[in-house]
């Protein structure tokens, strides 16, 4: 469970709608949210590695750092 509550999507302007908890937490700080968006966009735009291998790498990193998401 997160230590801080997520930002209210109805008060976020561009972010209104259904958001996952990591994005709601990052929405408290615009620079972190911007970096998060850039990372996701880069990951999805990369064509050098198969999608299955990217998924495995994400799962491994999440396991190593103990990410609950």
What does this protein structure show overall?
This protein is 54% helix and 0% strand. It has 69 residues and is mainly alpha-helical.
What's the helix count? Answer: 3
Largest β-sheet summary: none
Rounded Rg: 14 Å
The best one-word shape is globular
Offer a few descriptive terms:
69 residues, mainly alpha, globular
Question: Layout of helices and strands, plus pairs?
Answer:
Layout: H1 21-26, H2 30-45, H3 51-65
Write a brief structural summary.
By secondary structure, the protein is an all-alpha fold.
């Amino acid at each position: 469970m997160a230590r801080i509550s997520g930002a209210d999507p109805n008060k976020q302007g561009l972010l209104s709608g259904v958001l996952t908890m990591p994005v709601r937490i990052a929405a408290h700080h615009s620079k972190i949210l911007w970096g998060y968006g850039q990372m996701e966009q880069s990951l999805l735009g990369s064509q050098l590695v198969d999608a299955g291998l990217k998924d495995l790498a994400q799962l491994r990193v999440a396991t190593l750092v103990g990410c609950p998401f």
